[in-house]
Each structure stands twice: as C-alpha cells, then as structure tokens.
C-alpha cells in the first residue's frame, strides 16, 4: 500500500500518536490539580493555577497554540518567582506539550527535562508528586516518539505506567499502556500491541464510557486491522465511534473515522472508505489531520487506478506538505507522497510526463532525507533513502540505485531495523541481478530471507499492510531467490538452498494465513524416515517450471522445462477444470500427461533406480490445487504406480507408523441439510461402517455439536478423528471452517479443540479425516486453508478432499480405507488411501478421477 496508509501503520504519524497521548495527558493533569494538598498555602497555589494554566488550556483546545505557549510561559515565570517547584514542573509539562505540537523539538525537550529535574528533588512515593512525575514521563514518551526514538518512548511510558500503579491511578496506568501499544505498533510489533490492548480493553469493559475507553477501543481496532482481523477491527472501531459521538469528542471521532476508512479499504470496500475519509475530513482541524487524510485518499485513488482524480489531488497535497514543519510525520508524508507519485509515473502516457514526474519525486525524497538528517531520525532517513533507491531502480539507473540502497541498508543495519533491512537487501539483490552480478545478488537475497525468518512471529512488522500484500512483499523474495539458485548446472549447495527457500516460503504462507507462528513442535526431516520415499519440489518461475528431486541418501536432482509462466498456469487451470465430469476424457488425459511430462517424466529413471515407492510432493501456488494422484503417464495414473502424499515442507510432526493394535476412533457428522448446505444421506452408512470396523464413538446430527465435539476430543485420546460434515477451505482463516449442527467452527477454533486434548503433545491424533470438504469457489489459493488446518490440528496425518464428491462414492472409499487399516497390519496411511482409491478405479461407476483423486493425504504417510 502507498500514501497515508503507510503513514498510518508502518511509520506512525506524529499527529495521530501524539494527539492521543496529549489528550489523555491533559485529562490526567486536570485530575492532578484536584489532588494537591489542601493546606492554606497549597489552596492559594491551586487558585493561582486557575489563571495562566487554565487560560492556556482554553487557548490550546481552541487551536490557538502560540497564545497557549505564551500563557504557559507566564505560568513558568510565576512559579519560578514563588519557588513553587511542584507547580513549576506542571507548567513545564504543559509547555513541553504545546512545543511538541508546534514542532519546536529542542524547546519541548528542554521543558520536559526541567520538569523531571524539578521532580527528582521529591520522594518517589509522595502521593501528590507521583501523578505529575507520571505525566512528565508520558509527555517525554510523546516527544521521543515524535522524533523517532521509539525505544526511548517505550521506556518513558513504562516508567509512567509504573508510577501510576504505585499510587493506584488505574486510569493513568491504562493511558500509558495505550501509548506503549502505539509505540509497539511503530516498531512493527503488532502482536505484542494486540495482547497489551486486549488487556487494556478488558479492564475498561465494565467502566462508564469515557474518552479513555474510546481511545482504547480505537487503538485495539486499528491493531486488529493491521493483523488482518477486519471483522473484529470494524466492531471495535464502531464501538469507539459511538462513545466519541455520545461524548462529542470531535478529535476522537475524526481519528476513528480515519481508521474505519482504512479498514474499509482493506476490505476492498472502496466506496465505504471514501465515505469515511470524507466524514473525517469534515472534522479535520489542523493541516496535520488533513495531510494524513489526503495522502490516504491519494493512495486509495491510485490503488483503484482512478488516475485523473489522483492527479487532480496532487497540487493540494503538495501545498500541504510544503507547509509541514520538520518532524517524522513530514518525512513519512513526503516518502508516501513520493511512492504514490512513482506509481502514477509508471502509467504516465508520455515520456515527457515521466521525466517531469521523476524530478518531482526525487526532490520530494531529497527533502525527506534532509529533514530526517536534521532530526537525527535514522530510521526515517533509511526509509527515505531506500525509497529513492527504488525510484532509481524503476528507471534502470542501476549504479545510483545500488549506491543509495546500500546507504539505506547500512543505516537500517546500524539501528537494528530488520523490517527495513529485509527490504533493502531484497532491493539490492534485484539491482545486482539486473547488473549481471548473480553471485552477489544471491548473497543479498539470502540475507533478506534470513531476516524474514526472524520476523516470522510478527509478520506485519515486515511491511505496511503486509497481511494484504503477502504476494507482493514477501513471496517474491523467496521466488526470486529460487530463480537465481536454480540456474543451469546449479551446485549442490545452491540446490539445497533452493529447497530450503521453497519450504520456508510454505511455512511463511501458513504463518501469514494464521497471523502467527504455526509450527511450534519439534520437527524432523522426512529424508531420515523412509528409504523408499522421494520428495518432489515443483515451482513455477516466470520463464520455466523447475523441479528439485530429493532421493534418500543421494545428491539432489534438478529438472527444468522452459515455458512462460502464463502457459504453465493456463495448463494447470485447464487440467483442474477437466477433472469435472462434464469434460471429455481425451481432453483431460492430454492435459494430465502434459503436467506429468513436466513434473515426473524427467525423473522416471532416477525413481526406478532408487526403488522409490512413495512420492511426497511439496507443491506451491496453484499446484496445491491439483490432485497429483491423477497425473497420467500415457498408460497409468500416478496412484497406480506410487503412493502419493503432500507435505507443507521438509519438516513434519514426528513420524511414526500406525500401531496395529485396537485403534480408537471418534466419528461425527451431518446427514441432514443445515445452514444452507445440502444433506449428506450416505454419511449414515459411512459412520456406521466406521463404528463396525473400529468401534468408533459416533455423534450424528443434533448430537454433533461444538460442545460435544470439544468435550469428547478434549477428554479422550482417540487415534482417529473422522468428521463426515461439510467443511470449506479458503485462503482466509476466517473463511476456513467445518459445520456442526448449529455452528461453523473456524480453523483456529478447531485447532484449539484438538490441541487441548489429553496427551496431544506426546500422543497426537494419528489420523484426521475430513470426508466431505471442498475449497472455496473462485479462490485459487483456497488449498492453503487445507494445509493450514492440517498443520494447526496437530494430527500426524490428514485425509481430506479438494472438492465436494458424491457421498456414495466417498462412503465406499472411507469404508475401504478403514478396512485396509484394520485388516492389514503394518500398512501405512498412504498405502491404505492408495488401495481405497484403487478400489474406486476398479469400479465402472466411480473410475473417473472426479470421484477418487480429490482425496489427498497431508503429513505423515507411514
């Protein structure tokens, strides 16, 4: 994302951050005047406070900042003359506040330092002093954040919170927690911010409505939006807006409308976003408010390719930016303005307009760099320099691009900003590749990937709106590295690195799917557990399809077929469609054999020589949607030659064969139509056979509830969990669910149910079967949800279907699967599924791949 969205989430705007802290701070300071000691002398002091201090407040809230500064300067002089150190410290706090709003950073820093120095003469535990000291820390935190010293801001706000808690000031402590959460967001640590804000809002839930409560809800809503939980984000933001409207808090209303606009944009509801932005603009009172909204509006117009409207907005933004005083906000505004200008320039109609645009963009970024240097804001400087490097890269000015990007990278590394360093390593890698320096480019890409791995636990730290642009900001890094590594005559080291990169991409996709680190159990390598299994890593690159083959105990093989990715993807899509019964057999077999010739035929001799019996695919992209068992060599399907399994990577949850003692099973399902899904009458017979084969406990229809599912799974140690109910997989975790009698249990909730069962860590579910599932229509990455569910469940193996199949054929396949497991001691999961599929192939009514091929095994095949 471009423009103001970047200001909002990645490099947080000074105005938005500081105003929240300032408003809360003013409220707390108002409370301070009521807790001063009630002696005659102190009553006289309180009376004097009501003159210059109160007058300054009135001017400040009226937007008359210079007048407020003068009045608070008078208050400082008054208390200096009286020798009243406590009230002098309060006046210095107010003075620092207004200096920050006037962008007079040195004066603000001097005022807050004097306040803290004055307070150091008082005992730490003195009740009348503690609130003043806490507010000094609060304002110091705001100052640090505004000038790019985020870690120092966190320290100051932690000291403020600790001080409030010592004197039992819950509201003050909560205000400091909200400020700390905002600083965590600025550092990209959204998950930590979310945890903190959840705690804050739980504390405020039973309290009366207040500006503090509205601020807590808005902060939580903004954070939830940043990590992709848009439904809850909308809910919290609407609650915040309702409170702000009831309390007539104009500034909070504007801020919340702004966040609602951003949330609507992230939902791709552009009309709603425009409406929210327009309402927020009507409430804007300062140039800082307006510039942030204008940048967001520009970015939105660019995203929806409304070029004329975007270009018409440029002079207004240019004028507003020119008047901004030096601050991190002004740096970020210029950088994000430049990013939108760059996108507009790319689609400009004439070379003259591109040249003019380049000059304008370069000047905007040069100004941003200069301001960042003046502020000594190294992070903002790196951000601006890196963006300038991107401009040079777009225009093929390779030498300038390399030089500037290296400067941005050095700064990012020097301040340990991994989220920026990953971007500049990636950018430098692209530039070096374009210059023909392949080996050094690989080094840069590898460093970028290493940083991405360290950032996996908090993926949104990597880039603005990362959860919505994973395919643009993360996935290409891995793919481009693999492209470089899989050159002709690639070394074993490069092949190994390519394999690792492919696997790491799979894990990163799952982390992005769940917004958290998914694989937390100790993993092992499948190379070590089956001497008759080969691992196939196919990947589609822009100009070819590549296959890396791992054979037990042997060097990696590498096969390449030159083809444009568009042709490959068209063939894959056509094959997927041909698996429907409406397509001709001849068309399907031609497409199937074509894909077989890309993925398997080059390896046939190696597979035969190595005595391979099982093929484990690690597919990516659209390849995940395809049933590999249905690939055709011209005479036989792949399943007729090999066992087939799918793995999300080289690592699995410990591998172990099924014990052939009595297997315990839980079966749940629906035969009746529920919640808009059709009836599944054959499920009755399906689970009856399972009960017959494995003495399963069965819960059907009204007894198959969320509560019963949770209670039985949590309090038992079933080897097999078989769910014969509708389930849908999607590229969104929220849209990946399974049906119970009256609920939809989403993938996260289902994973939590399975993970809480007795002995799950030491004795996980051996086999999870989902016999009536399907992928979301129109979602070409829906099978990511299937992989996510398989991993999240903690089961050693998962059998599920890629699309909805007639329940009669499914019932037969499941019956055969369990008969194989019961009657053939030592049979593996993949072999049992293979035999069940072969049993359908042998039947005239069900020999079409539509019936048997969608059932895939994910995970342990032994």
TrEMBL record:
UniProt-listed PROSITE patterns: TPR
InterPro entries assigned: CHAT_dom, TPR-like_helical_dom_sf, TPR_rpt
Pfam families: CHAT (PF12770), TPR_12 (PF13424)
Keywords tagged on the record: TPR repeat
Keyword match rRNA-binding: no
CHAT domain span: 592-860
TPR repeats: 254-287
PANTHER family listed in its UniProt record: RAPSYN-RELATED, SLR0380 PROTEIN
Protein name: CHAT domain-containing protein
Source organism per UniProt: Zarconia navalis LEGE 11467
